[in-house]
TrEMBL record, chain A:
<dbReference type="InterPro" id="IPR009936">
    <property type="entry name" value="DUF1468"/>
</dbReference>
<keyword id="KW-1133">Transmembrane helix</keyword>
<feature type="transmembrane region" description="Helical">
    <location>
        <begin position="40"/>
        <end position="60"/>
    </location>
</feature>
<keyword id="KW-0812">Transmembrane</keyword>
<feature type="domain" description="DUF1468">
    <location>
        <begin position="7"/>
        <end position="145"/>
    </location>
</feature>
<dbReference type="Pfam" id="PF07331">
    <property type="entry name" value="TctB"/>
</dbReference>
<feature type="transmembrane region" description="Helical">
    <location>
        <begin position="119"/>
        <end position="144"/>
    </location>
</feature>
From TrEMBL, chain B:
<protein>
    <submittedName>
        <fullName>Tripartite tricarboxylate transporter substrate binding protein</fullName>
    </submittedName>
</protein>
<dbReference type="Pfam" id="PF03401">
    <property type="entry name" value="TctC"/>
</dbReference>
<comment type="similarity">
    <text>Belongs to the UPF0065 (bug) family.</text>
</comment>
<keyword id="KW-0732">Signal</keyword>
<dbReference type="InterPro" id="IPR042100">
    <property type="entry name" value="Bug_dom1"/>
</dbReference>
<dbReference type="InterPro" id="IPR005064">
    <property type="entry name" value="BUG"/>
</dbReference>
<feature type="signal peptide">
    <location>
        <begin position="1"/>
        <end position="22"/>
    </location>
</feature>
From TrEMBL, chain C:
<feature type="transmembrane region" description="Helical">
    <location>
        <begin position="57"/>
        <end position="80"/>
    </location>
</feature>
<feature type="domain" description="DUF112">
    <location>
        <begin position="20"/>
        <end position="436"/>
    </location>
</feature>
<feature type="transmembrane region" description="Helical">
    <location>
        <begin position="325"/>
        <end position="346"/>
    </location>
</feature>
<feature type="transmembrane region" description="Helical">
    <location>
        <begin position="198"/>
        <end position="218"/>
    </location>
</feature>
<feature type="transmembrane region" description="Helical">
    <location>
        <begin position="107"/>
        <end position="130"/>
    </location>
</feature>
<feature type="transmembrane region" description="Helical">
    <location>
        <begin position="387"/>
        <end position="405"/>
    </location>
</feature>
<keyword id="KW-0472">Membrane</keyword>
Length: 149, 308, 490
């Protein structure tokens, strides 16, 4: 059965095991900086093992206390998936078109997707995008993503 | 509608870059990549040279910090930019050391090294109550007790120290700190016995007498600390230090390099820049492209003996 | 000394300096409130503008940005659950709960007042006993930092009260993430997979943006889908006199703690806020209120992070060593002005030292006034329809993640952590332990290994160095009291 209180700890255990498998492959550089008796591998190893123990404890806790998983919706709803897509699309667009154009386009698409008809919302959105542009590039002189085009 | 808008903007962009021919260079803002964080030594040198050069070139130079991997990220990024003279990079000694350590793919060969800006030797420092009074006291102590003298290292590995260790056949207990701002308090607090930093990094402790300089690792004495003898004067033939310069991607047209080189020459000779460097106890060392390129080649070679 | 202070105060109110100071504080607040833009960045960007300024005005402006920046982060933390800087991450715990209860104005006023108390007390301590505090700070080295980090990590148990195991899991995830990059002692690449951007490890700011801002935006978006929107409660009521009385002792204690933490090079406002929060919760008679809108918890975090401002100037002014990144820029600013920070500054340029002191006093007052006057305006932000606020938070997050290092790679990190934070939220695993672990993990590991190098592999430093021992005992005590508290509640 897919129960997130079981699946997640199991996933973390698998992840920790992968980490443990990666640790022996650390390449020690030839140029010798001396190292302590506790070396580069020590901390990650301890942490990965600790993580596995905690996950086992979490699974045990669930068993002992008979914690009921609160009936809950799936982790990703339609809206959060839309949000995710929006995020990634914005990040991609901004690296091509730069901040100003990407933001204007994405804000418009967002409002259209949510079926907003209020003109004031569109105006507010454009106003905000331009104000931030001005604030960053003219007042604080912080470089915004410029895009590669 | 939106598509048309987009196309227009894209076209405008293409025209803008096409018109940026070498003849009317510079026709837009120049970006200077600093591979270290805002507020550090390399950053302030970068920002000051940008400030002094912008009026000479008649265009704005904006500084862009791109940190990571002890400078590797920013310098690699700089090497991969369009070779149109609008993206320049502050290069530091790490461009010679990191590739040899396998920590960076790009090397000095991926750049045209326009000008060296400054060259700072390392100074050997101990706390004011230290039993060491000369570099030979330190070497003596390291010989009688190998690996026992605690050295506050500003980086791992520390090439200043390795140079001394290789030459003298000694071994110190190098404890890596995160830069001079951690290494100096460690010596002040008596947790470690000795450190090596550039004069600018320790000028206030030297002036106030909290730290004592055992020697400077250059051929000649440094004007900011004229009383400190060189290691060579004390019979230890070791020099070491760090340097910074400005570079452009290797395919940048020669005319642009000449324009920039002349501008940097003027900037480095300007009163503002000289004053800034003097107050930070940093030494201006202007080298032209041929000299600088040869210098980096030599330094790469000398570092390779330290790394192996 | 009083003479210098008075003339310094006079200078701070002069026509040449006062506008610069207000500009600095206001700019700092705005920068701090925007995710990704920090006080350090603001100060570094303004540095070249100080080249042409007179020394006092230059320092005043930079200090204004510093003080404003630390405070500004909490405005967005309280209103939007998106801390502007890591120093405000602890503010979210109670500040946002208050906003949800319709008490945003009260929370904002408490935050402004507590920040003011933190800044004021720490400035007074700086003026009064800076050299003594510097001697204390110099006694800190690798063993002490290790013990401090260890103590800090025990706070994870205290900020994950609902299910300690889940909090600990978040902690180990964070610690494991903090090992990514070139190992600071031996330069061994760990989990870098040849990606150069990972060599210096995962930057804490994009993680902060992802875990808090982006995941919160995704959460809000999900709620938008649910049609029946409950009208949000909102009250314009500010804090009461009773509130002030109740937060005063906590605020002063946190200010003192924050000043000491700030005085130690390498430990800053982020650590201080969590330590003070933890301490306030430990001594509280109602620890269960913490995390559900405790005004004491909010005040402790706020006073704790602003308490660092005075402390971090201690090593700078007395030793000439910067205590944190902001102090490093201030050091540069002083040097450019031809001044030598360190013990000589007090004897050679007392007017500068006391000019800095008095401008800190004035900057804190300015912060309080701007903070209180601004509440009405800030509250408008929470009245912006959620529908519009969500893309704004997303845009600011992405731009902020980019601006910190001009890198799309960091944008990617922020998005990944945004998704992680969102999923963890669904699993009721708290995100703040991840952040705390990423801040403290490298500090713990590096300093443990440094200590072992210093003492030739002997572990005796754990009990032979009094300050280290004290922190280790505090750590044990902190764990013990959390366990006891948990037994009581279950």
């Amino acid at each position: 059965m897919f129960n997130r209180d079981i699946v997640f700890p199991v996933l973390i255990i698998i992840f920790s095991a992968t980490v443990l498998a990666l640790i022996p492959q650390f390449s020690i550089p030839s140029y010798g900086q001396q190292d302590a008796s506790v070396g580069a591998k020590f901390f990650p190893t301890v942490l990965a093992i600790l993580q596995i123990i905690i996950c086992i404890a979490l699974l045990a806790q669930r068993k002992i206390k008979q914690l009921k998983t609160t009936a809950s919706a799936s982790i990703f709803s339609k809206m959060s998936l839309f949000g995710l897509g929006f995020l990634i699309a914005y990040a991609v667009l901004i690296s091509f078109l730069g901040y100003l154009i990407a933001s204007l386009i994405m804000f418009t698409l967002y409002l259209i997707f949510l079926k907003t008809k209020k003109a004031s919302y569109y105006l507010f959105a454009y106003f905000f995008v331009v104000v931030i542009y001005y604030l960053f590039s003219q007042v604080f002189l912080i470089s915004l993503p410029e895009g590669i085009l | 509608m939106k598509k048309i808008m987009k196309n227009i903007i894209v076209m405008a962009g293409i025209f803008a870059s096409a018109s940026a021919f070498t003849a009317d260079y510079p026709s837009k803002n120049i970006r200077l990549i600093v591979p270290f964080g805002a507020g550090g030594g390399t950053d302030s040198v970068g920002r000051t040279i940008a400030n002094s050069t912008k009026d000479i070139l008649g265009t704005n130079i904006s500084v862009m910090n791109r940190t990571g991997g002890a400078g590797a990220v920013g310098m690699s990024f700089g090497a991969q930019q369009r070779a149109d003279g609008y993206t320049l990079t502050v290069v530091t000694r790490e461009i010679a050391s990191l590739p040899q350590m396998g920590l960076m793919q790009h090397t000095a060969d991926d750049f045209k090294l326009i000008r060296m800006v400054n060259l700072d030797p390392a100074v050997v420092l101990v706390s004011k109550d230290s039993k060491f009074n000369s570099i030979n006291d330190l070497i003596e102590a390291a010989k009688t007790n190998p690996g026992k003298v605690k050295f506050a290292s500003t980086a791992a590995p520390n090439f200043y120290l390795i140079a001394l260790q290789k030459d003298q056949g000694i071994q110190l207990n190098a404890i890596p700190y995160n830069g001079s701002s951690e290494a100096i308090p460690s010596v002040l607090g008596g947790h470690t016995e000795v450190t090596m930093v550039t004069p600018g990094e320790a000028i206030s402790q030297l002036k106030s007498g909290q730290l004592k300089a055992l020697g400077v690792m250059s051929k000649d004495r440094i004007s900011y600390i004229p009383d400190v003898p060189t290691l060579i004067e004390q019979g230890v033939n070791v020099t070491s230090g760090t340097w910074r310069g400005i570079a452009a991607p290797k395919n940048t047209p020669d005319e642009i390099i000449t324009t920039l080189g002349n501008a940097f020459d003027k900037a480095m000779a300007s009163d503002d820049f000289k004053k800034f460097m003097a107050q930070g106890a940093m030494t201006i060392h202007n080298m032209d492209m041929a000299e600088f390129t040869q210098f980096v080649k030599d330094d790469t070679k000398s570092l390779s003996t330290l790394i192996q | 000394m009083i003479d210098y202070l008075l003339s310094g105060l006079g200078a701070a109110f002069s026509l040449a300096v006062f506008p610069v100071l207000i500009f600095g504080v206001l700019g700092g607040i705005i920068l701090g409130a925007l995710p990704g833009l920090t006080a350090t960045m603001g100060v570094a960007i303004l540095l070249p503008f100080t080249f042409g300024m007179e020394a006092t005005a230059a320092m005043v402006m930079l200090i204004g940005v510093y003080i404003g920046g630390i405070y500004g982060g909490s405005i967005s933390a309280i209103l939007l659950k998106t801390p502007g800087t890591p120093a405000s991450a602890a503010t979210v715990l109670d500040g946002y709960s208050l906003t949800q209860q319709g008490q945003a104005a009260r929370a904002l006023s408490i935050s402004a007042v507590a920040s003011f108390i933190g800044g004021l007390v720490s400035t007074i301590i700086l003026i009064a006993i800076a050299p003594t505090l510097a001697k204390f700070a110099l006694r800190f080295n690798a063993p002490e930092y290790f013990a401090l980090a260890l103590f800090g990590l025990t706070i994870i148990a205290s900020i994950s009260s609902r299910n300690i195991l889940k909090g600990l899991l978040a902690g180990t995830i964070g610690l494991l993430i903090s090992t990514v990059g070139l190992d600071p002692i031996s330069s061994v690449p760990r989990f870098t997979f040849g990606v150069m951007d990972l060599y210096s490890g995962i930057n804490v700011i994009p993680v902060l943006i992802g875990l808090f801002a982006i995941s919160e935006a995704l959460n809000q978006l999900e709620k938008l889908g649910v049609k029946a929107q409950i009208a949000e409660k909102f009250s314009n009521k500010l804090m009461s006199l009773k509130d002030l009385k109740s937060i005063l002792p906590t605020s002063i204690k946190s200010a003192l703690l924050g000043t000491s933490i700030g005085a130690v090079p390498g430990a800053g406002a982020d650590i201080s806020a969590f330590v003070c929060y933890n301490e306030a919760k430990r001594v509280s008679k109602q620890p269960e209120e913490f995390g559900n809108g405790s005004i004491k918890g909010l005040a402790a975090a706020e006073s704790g992070n602003n308490g660092v401002t005075g402390g971090s100037l201690v090593p700078l002014l007395t030793l000439g060593v910067p205590g944190d990144a902001v102090a490093a820029v201030l050091l540069g600013a002083l040097i450019i002005q031809g001044l030598t920070p360190g013990p000589l500054l007090f004897s050679q340029n007392p007017e500068i030292v006391y000019g800095i002191f008095s401008s800190m006093l004035v900057a804190n007052i300015a912060m309080l006034v701007i903070g209180l006057l601004g509440i009405r305006f800030f509250c408008q932000i929470s009245k912006v329809p959620k529908l519009l606020m969500i893309p704004i938070i997303i845009f600011l997050s992405i731009v902020g993640a980019y601006a910190i290092n001009n890198s799309m790679f960091d944008v990617g990190i922020a998005i990944v952590f945004g998704i992680l934070g969102f999923v963890l939220g669904k699993l009721e695993i708290p995100s703040s332990p991840i952040l705390l672990a990423i801040i403290l993990g490298p500090m713990a590991e590096t300093n443990l290994r440094k200590s072992l190098l210093m003492f030739d592999g002997s572990w005796a430093f754990l009990y032979e160095r009094p300050i280290a021992l004290a922190f280790i005992m505090l750590a044990v005590f902190s764990v013990w009291s959390t366990i006891r508290r948990n037994k009581k509640t279950t």
